[in-house]
Amino acid sequence: MHRIKFSAGMEQPASLSVRSSLKLVAVFEHPTAQQAFDGSSLRALSQQAEFSEFRGQHEKTMLVFPHSAGEAGGAQLLYGLGRWESIDISRLRESLIAAFKAAKKSGAVDLVLVLPPLAGSGISDQEFGESVALIATIVDYEVNHFKTAKGGHKAHKHFKSVHVTCIKDKEVRSGMRAGQIVGSAINNTRNLVNLPAGQCTPEHLASQARELERKAAGAISVKVLSRKQCAKLGMNAFLAVAQGSTVEPRFIELTYEPANAVSDVVLGLVGKSITFDSGGLDIKSAGGMRDMKCDMAGGATVLSAIGAIAALKLPVKVKAFMAATENMPGPRSYKPGDVIEAMGGLSVEVDNTDAEGRLTLIDAIEYARRAGCTHIVDLATLTGAILTSLADVGAGLFTNDPVWAQEVKASARLADELVWEMPMWAALKKGNESQLADLKNSGGTFGAGSSTAALFIAAFAQGIPWVHLDIAGVAMRGRELGADPKGGTGWGVRTLVNLARRLSGK
Ligand code: BES
Ligand code: ZN
Ligand code: ZN
């Protein structure tokens, strides 16, 4: 993966020429362009700004070439921060997204940012540095395509370097290190979600986990279970889903338990890892199946997040779990009407083989419980119904513990990732009632499909603080949104990293 060279300090890297680099300058919004630039070195630009109607509006940018106006200096990109009274870290990040997108469009590869005058805004230099590196990294992302030069593809122009000019550089630098770690984890998630199901198999996810173990040099340990080993443990719900595919399933467990962990909390991250969801015998329509390589996005997110948490050396114990398999129709497939005894001891009637995610999650959650997790967050592209409620904009949050949910919500807010709590009304459990078994795996035509799915999982998370994030709408989008390109988004990595930070008191 491409790595940008980040730096901070008074002197910009000597190799940068005025000609090749683009300087990004923040401007607060004022009623007129003249006022916006008054007293600053940018005054000479106010005429062009007036012409372009740029006066520092939030998310607006203007590219200028002072030397063409007979002045010294190279190209500059002015980006609006909006009004001083409304600045906060989220608004600043939105401005930076607009700025880096404009910089990318300009074709510039070496960027220099002047530290904006943020004293009194509540935004620290550390936060600015982290936001710059994170956003530069995720805006610079190029989809992992298979286009060739022979086919006429021209190589993507990546950002080479990003420098922040500042006097006190320690905080900015440490923020930049963190931002690059989290940004790379997001890009890694996007790559896995975009990777075709033919390549992104359960074994591929396992090899990614082992690769992380190697890179983390002792900080992360990985355990991978085969179909046979899962059978021994009684993971019948997971294996029922895996039955239909000749591609071998894998149960993947990653452990990060630093010696300096500040508490006994063991955070369990469970990610839905269906590498392809055809629907099984209850087969999907062609349109409904088209993008189902994305059905392992939850797994890719927890994998990348635990990697980032370890790289940041956060003093908190974390485990990640992925019950990875395809969901395929075939002579061996599990069938509608089958009854399975899940690892957690409850019996489940298969009402619909396309409601496979919840079956794999309940065994993963039971495994996490036995592995000593004290708190659980699962991320799953679980229901099409969540798109009806929240579109591709936010994730649905479901919980059995309001206090734990508050932690996750606060972490998401700090990440600028939208979550909305959805009902877990007892009366909705009716949808999961089965004549033959303790539960059935689909609410059928009962309605409230995202809630009945969550209530099904809740039956297996009893006694453990648990939050379920339904990311079916946000994990992969058919359009560009904010810093996310079309395709895999890496949604959730930031929320999970922030959660680990909160739990470790950082
Ligand atoms: N993987 C799908 C959900 C999904 C839909 C993810 C759209 C991403 C985008 C899930 O396994 C599924 O098929 N759910 C069914 C459940 C139903 C059969 C009870 C659904 O939502 O239709
Ligand atoms: Zn399905
Ligand atoms: Zn699915």
Walk me through what this model shows.
- The protein has 506 residues and is an alpha/beta fold.
- The chain contains 15 helices and 19 strands.
- The strands form 4 sheets. The protein has an 8-stranded mixed sheet with strand order 7-8-10-9-13-17-14-15, with helices on both faces.
- β5, α4 and β6 form a beta-alpha-beta unit.
- α11 packs parallel to α14 and α13 crosses α15.
- The protein starts with a strand and ends with a helix.
Keyword list:
six-stranded mixed beta sheet, 506 residues, elongated, alpha/beta, 15 helices, 19 strands, binds ligand BES, binds zinc ion
Distance between the termini: 28 Å
Ligand inventory reads:
ligand BES, zinc ion
| Rounded radius of gyration (Å) | 24 Å
The stretches of 5 or more residues where confidence is low (pLDDT under 50) are none
Shape field: elongated
Record the strand order, biggest sheet: 7-8-10-9-13-17-14-15
Helix content: 25-40%
Q: What can be said about the biggest beta sheet?
A: 8 strands, mixed
Report strand %.
15-25%
Look at the structure and give the mean pLDDT: 96
Structural class, from secondary structure content? alpha/beta
Number of strands: 19
Tally of individual helices: 15
The gist of it:
The protein is of the alpha/beta class and 506 residues long. It is built from 15 helices and 19 strands.
Topology:
Layout: E1 5-9, E2 21-28, H1 33-37, H2 46-51, E3 61-64, E4 76-82, H3 89-106, E5 110-114, H4 125-139, E6 161-165, H5 170-194, H6 202-215, E7 220-225, H7 227-232, H8 236-242, E8 250-256, E9 266-277, H9 286-289, H10 297-311, E10 317-327, E11 339-341, E12 347-349, H11 357-370, E13 375-380, H12 385-390, E14 395-399, H13 402-414, E15 419-421, E16 439-440, H14 449-458, E17 466-470, E18 476-477, E19 487-488, H15 493-503
Parallel strand pairs: 1-6, 2-4, 2-5, 5-6, 9-10, 9-13, 12-16, 13-17, 14-15
Antiparallel strand pairs: 3-4, 7-8, 8-10, 11-12, 14-17, 18-19
Helix pairs in contact: 3-4, 4-5, 5-10, 6-10, 8-11, 10-15, 11-14, 13-15
Bound molecules: ligand BES and zinc ion (2 copies).
One zinc ion binds near residues 277, 279, 354 and 356.
